[in-house]
Specification:
It is built from 11 helices and 2 strands, in the order H-H-H-H-H-H-H-E-E-H-H-H-H. By secondary structure, the chain is an all-alpha fold. Strands 1-2 form a two-stranded antiparallel ribbon. A hairpin with a 3-residue loop joins strand 1 and strand 2.
Length: about 280
């Protein structure tokens, strides 16, 4: 418990200045570094560390794509570039699988590509959301959603949990915990909106914020379960040990990887929170 607490305090102390300097390249560099570490964790998990030709492009994509997200003048430019990069990577993996004469099965290529896309786009979406008009506030909602849902799902489940949510994947999670985490996430989004309105003068649509809180809480918990199922499939306890007492970055950021693309898509495409983003 002491080790977990010390790690959490140090991580929080490092995170604050990075978030404060989110308009600088320090923020992008931090996201890229975490993405590369997360890719290393998943590659180790799926047992492909010796697949040099197959995995080096994954590391390069993880390092470069967050920077390309900031460099792109418009989201359309980024979509074109990202689509091209991922298509070429997918094509190369399929070719390597075909030429390997069954030494590199198609299912191994598929899981590597899928996890590369999921993890890299999950972290890159944090930069994309930050760089939207008004995103200097809205990207913080990713952290609000994930931390609130995780903490209150745990507390609600611990005190009121009776019905298992998905016992074959995560035996300790309960339906009551999921509901509690969702409700508190919605409340946290509304409080977050009040904070922005009071201290930064933002005029907000609270119905939209409540909707974002609902979606984020649900997606956050599914993201957690997705990575739990991966750990169970490959029979590992943690993805890594870079965060003593907490495991790896994927153990702590699993829900963020799922939530950030959803929040980005909602804010960028449907503009549910247009008062913030205008």
């Amino acid at each position: 418990m002491l080790k977990r607490t010390i790690t959490a305090v140090i991580a929080f102390a490092l995170l604050l200045p990075i978030l404060y300097l989110s308009h600088t390249w320090l923020f992008v560099a931090a996201v890229s570094a975490i993405t590369v570490i997360a890719m290393n964790e998943i590659i180790r998990c799926i047992g492909q560390t010796k697949r040099i030709a197959e995995t080096i492009p994954a590391y390069l994509i993880a390092a470069v794509l967050p920077a390309l997200a900031r460099l792109s003048q418009t989201k359309d430019n980024f979509i074109v570039v990202a689509t091209g990069i991922f298509f070429l990577y997918m094509f190369s993996l399929l070719c390597l699988s075909m030429l390997s004469k069954r030494d590199y099965p198609l299912d191994e290529a598929a899981i590597l590509f899928t996890m590369t896309f999921f993890i890299v786009m999950g972290f890159t979406s944090i930069v994309l959301l930050r760089d939207l008009p008004g995103g200097k506030y809205m990207y913080l909602s990713i952290f609000v959603a994930c931390f609130t849902t995780d903490i209150f799902a745990y507390l609600t489940g611990r005190f009121f949990g009776k019905h298992k949510l998905c016992p074959e994947v995560s035996p300790k999670k309960t339906v009551e915990g999921a509901v509690g985490g969702t409700l508190f996430c919605i409340i946290a989004f509304l409080i977050f909106g009040l904070f922005l309105e009071r201290w930064f003068g933002e005029q907000l649509n609270y119905l939209s914020l409540a909707f974002l809180g609902l979606v984020s809480a649900c997606v956050s918990q599914f993201g957690d379960l997705i990575f739990s199922s991966i750990k169970r499939k490959y029979q590992i306890k943690d993805f890594g040990n870079v965060l003593p007492g907490h495991g790896g970055f994927l153990d702590r950021c699993d829900s963020m990887i799922a939530v950030s693309p959803f929040l980005y898509m909602i804010c960028a495409i449907f503009e549910f929170v247009s008062p913030i983003l205008s």
